[in-house]
Amino acid sequence: MARLQKLIWALNEKLREDPDADIGDLLTTSRIDFDDCVSYAYVRESIGCNRNLIYDEPDLFRLTLNVWRPAAQNGMHDHGQSKCYFKVLCGKLVEIHYHVADIKYREGQVRPLIDKSTCHHMLNNDDGFSVSLHVYIPPFDRHDVPGGAAIPVTPSFVSRYGFPVDRNSRLLRANVFMA
Ligand SMILES: [Fe+2]
């Protein structure tokens, strides 16, 4: 947990100084692992990619923890006006692009930058659960439409700030990775 708090503090410091700062190195050098985030890792029986809100700094950044069931994938998407970075904390993930080759990530690897032009989806094709830590800069809450009004995006989470949104969200057992 101390390493998670340290990362949040460092992200705040760096992004307050420069909201366009590249935080890829910060994520890469951070020794944060799944144990640091285990109290945020909730899952639902019916959901493949379970998104957990860890921290929200309004207008600056958002930190989420995604818990991927085996064979889970999300739909094709972009990130609106937000940039995104992620680090794989457990298991493996594949990032599927539409114009470039797919990229495979294993534990400890960081996706350096998903910018506004990226359209992709992600897949856990491992046999077990995978977990990834995501940073959105700024929080992904709207799609800007050229010449039109911004479309609000309502993120759905299975937990917020370490608390389940309802009783269908269950804390993932830490030993699920120890099989
Ligand atoms: Fe994405």
From TrEMBL:
<protein>
    <recommendedName>
        <fullName>Cysteine dioxygenase</fullName>
        <ecNumber>1.13.11.20</ecNumber>
    </recommendedName>
</protein>
<keyword id="KW-0560">Oxidoreductase</keyword>
<feature type="binding site">
    <location>
        <position position="120"/>
    </location>
    <ligand>
        <name>Fe cation</name>
    </ligand>
</feature>
<keyword id="KW-0479">Metal-binding</keyword>
<keyword id="KW-0408">Iron</keyword>
<dbReference type="GO" id="GO:0042412">
    <property type="term" value="P:taurine biosynthetic process"/>
</dbReference>
<comment type="pathway">
    <text>Organosulfur biosynthesis; taurine biosynthesis; hypotaurine from L-cysteine: step 1/2.</text>
</comment>
<feature type="cross-link" description="3'-(S-cysteinyl)-tyrosine (Cys-Tyr)">
    <location>
        <begin position="84"/>
        <end position="136"/>
    </location>
</feature>
<keyword id="KW-0223">Dioxygenase</keyword>
<feature type="binding site">
    <location>
        <position position="77"/>
    </location>
    <ligand>
        <name>Fe cation</name>
    </ligand>
</feature>
<feature type="binding site">
    <location>
        <position position="79"/>
    </location>
    <ligand>
        <name>Fe cation</name>
    </ligand>
</feature>
<comment type="similarity">
    <text>Belongs to the cysteine dioxygenase family.</text>
</comment>
<dbReference type="GO" id="GO:0008198">
    <property type="term" value="F:ferrous iron binding"/>
</dbReference>
<dbReference type="InterPro" id="IPR010300">
    <property type="entry name" value="CDO_1"/>
</dbReference>
<dbReference type="Pfam" id="PF05995">
    <property type="entry name" value="CDO_I"/>
</dbReference>
<dbReference type="InterPro" id="IPR011051">
    <property type="entry name" value="RmlC_Cupin_sf"/>
</dbReference>
<dbReference type="InterPro" id="IPR014710">
    <property type="entry name" value="RmlC-like_jellyroll"/>
</dbReference>
<dbReference type="GO" id="GO:0017172">
    <property type="term" value="F:cysteine dioxygenase activity"/>
</dbReference>
<keyword id="KW-0883">Thioether bond</keyword>
